[in-house]
Amino acid sequence: MPGHSAPDRGRTTASERGTAPKQDRSRATRQRLLESAVTCLAERGWSGSTVTLVAEHAGVSRGAAQHHFPTREDLFTAAVEYVAEQRSAVLRDLPAPATTEAAVEMIVDLYTGPLFRAALHLWVAASNEPQLGPRVAALEARIGRETHRMALALLGADERTPGVRETVQGLLDMARGLGLANLLRDDTPRRNRVVAQWASLIADTLR
Amino acid sequence: MPGHSAPDRGRTTASERGTAPKQDRSRATRQRLLESAVTCLAERGWSGSTVTLVAEHAGVSRGAAQHHFPTREDLFTAAVEYVAEQRSAVLRDLPAPATTEAAVEMIVDLYTGPLFRAALHLWVAASNEPQLGPRVAALEARIGRETHRMALALLGADERTPGVRETVQGLLDMARGLGLANLLRDDTPRRNRVVAQWASLIADTLR
């Protein structure tokens, strides 16, 4: 995690000085593996995704990859969580859009890229694979809570107003459904019309 | 298909009389295979679903199964289409519910059972498998159009009113997203709250 070791930098001892670049390299390797894992999962699905393939794609030895992620389940769940966190960090720093429609567009866009495709493959595989099920369910709950907070901020919505919580939840469900509809073909023109209509339907409830 | 041969029954010739029971048996075998295929796909996903497994489950020889469905792709795409058609036929005969909320509940229920799970596994597999992609995309389009017609009828909605088409499309996207959220855990309490809120949001636009 960036920033994790930063507070210690100022008081590095002599023995630590030698290990710091090694830790940086290890962190960079880990990040490359996680990013490659999301790409691989999005493009090839769960059945086509292995640690060996991701290591090759990331230019890392299989042994190094397994040092970081002992199992296939470790690698791919960590990858979806890492990329989701990176994205939240970027979105948290943006100002809230001026209109409900612009905010709805940004929220819906979260479900049309490689991260959603990767997560979808993982969720669907988890529904049939006992070794994946409980950890993916927990991961989905964490990402879901974070996405809900992010959506409230983008919409400038206050959950204490009755109906707002369920309106935003339904909007996120709709965004997920729009992501699914975009899986086999480019669904952009239809999606834009749905977004415009629903933004106008929810604007009154939210502001 | 039931009813397909019914109009000919009254004028069966002597030579046809011997083959009719054989055709009935063949049709019954086909239906058992299709229903078993949807169950198998819903429970085991695409990677766990084979013609052999479905034949065993349906109590049909592997040879007979392959006579009806030469490839795995043939069997599972036909199965999702058949079960979707059976369901549409049932729903077409029901009267429109008295309230928008009851109609929204019925629409959302379409996405929480085995048919949705089976279809989801097929859609997601099709996004990575070239031999499955184009036929599943065409199948999804056909089922999507039929579901849209069904939703309009259940809601008593008229598409000529501006905004109605996109409102109903967004509702179906939300229903799909709610189905996805129900994949790894029972999401019923949250889903009921979202349905109540969204039904009230769309009632004015639709009626």
TrEMBL record, chains A, B:
Residues 1-11 have a biased composition (Basic and acidic residues). Residues 50-69 bind DNA. Residues 27-87 form the HTH tetR-type domain. Pfam families: TetR_N. The keyword DNA-binding applies. Keywords: DNA-binding. Residues 1-29 are annotated as: Disordered. This is TetR/AcrR family transcriptional regulator. It comes from Streptomyces gossypii.
